[in-house]
Every structure is written in C-alpha cells, then in structure tokens.
Design goal:
Layout (H helix, E strand, L loop, with lengths): L1 H21 L9 E6 L10 E9 L2 E2 L5 E8 L6 E4 L1 E4 L2 E6 L5 E11 L2 E3 L2 E6 L4 H9 L3 E2 L6
Antiparallel strand pairs: 1-2, 2-3, 2-7, 4-5, 4-8, 6-7, 8-9, 8-10, 10-11
Length: about 150
C-alpha cells in the first residue's frame, strides 16, 4: 500500500511539473514589461505615432508573437485595432488619426511565448468636455503596467 501511495505521489508530482512548464503563470522569472509612449499633444485629423517598449527580464524583447494597439473613445461601444510594427528590438510603433476630440484609451496587447501584457493608458485628443475632465482627474495615469496573464 505504501509503495502505491509513493508511486501515485511521484506520478502526480511529475504531471504537475509538466503542466507548470507549459503554463505561462509558471514563467514568473520572465515577466513582460510593457510601456506605452504617446505624443505630448494629440490633435484631431492629424496622424499620430504611438510607441510601446517591451522588455523581458529587463532586456528589450527581440521578437514578440503579437503586438496590437486597441484604441477607443470614452463611452464608445466599439474600438479600433491597429497592428504594431517593430522599429527595432523591443520597440513597436503604430499610427492612428482621430476624427473627434475627447478622452481616449489605448491598450497595448503584447504576447510572447504564451505570456501577455496589456497595459491601458488614457490620453486626450484636442479639448475635453467638463465630464471627460472629471474622469481624467479621478483615474490613475496608467493602468495594468506590465500586467501579464
């Protein structure tokens, strides 16, 4: 009986360690850190470039599986997805033009080897309404910095 319990315990440990090897949560030693950089002043009807820097263990990430920006306006029901392009190791950019002034959000969706990072940052295009200004004053500058799943 003790041999059976020992064998089952060993088999369970092997199975669990195998699962952890393929589990992104087990890669805690290799977190992705994602930093979104926006232009200082963003105007309506003007092409703007957004940049994201991605590091893994403090080193610029050479290649990512997927990097896209999701952009939406406050209270909008739909968002726009923009593919990012690599400009150099760990640096990805995308361009967008905004038709309306107001409060917007940008979320970088970054994935590499099963680990993802999805920080969100708010920004202003042109002038804000009083309601949008109140929202900006209540929220932190950047959300989910370096968050990984």
């Amino acid at each position: 009986m003790n041999k059976r319990i020992g064998a089952l315990t060993l088999a369970g440990a092997i199975l669990l360690s195998g699962c952890a090897a393929g589990n992104p949560e087990a890669r805690l030693s290799e977190p992705l850190e994602t930093f979104i950089y926006l232009p200082e002043d963003i105007s309506a009807d003007t092409p703007e470039t957004f940049t994201v820097h991605v590091t893994e263990n403090g080193e610029l990430l050479e290649t990512a599986d997927d990097i896209t920006f999701e952009v939406w306006q406050e209270a909008a029901e739909e968002s726009e997805w923009i593919e990012a392009e690599s400009s150099e190791a760990g640096v990805y950019t995308a361009e967008a033009t905004f038709e309306k002034e107001g409060l917007y959000y940008i979320q970088a969706h970054v994935s590499s080897d099963g680990v993802s990072s999805m920080p969100v940052k708010s920004f202003t295009v042109g002038e804000l309404t009083e309601e949008e200004q109140a929202i900006v004053e209540e929220e932190p500058e950047e959300h989910d910095e370096g968050h990984h799943h």
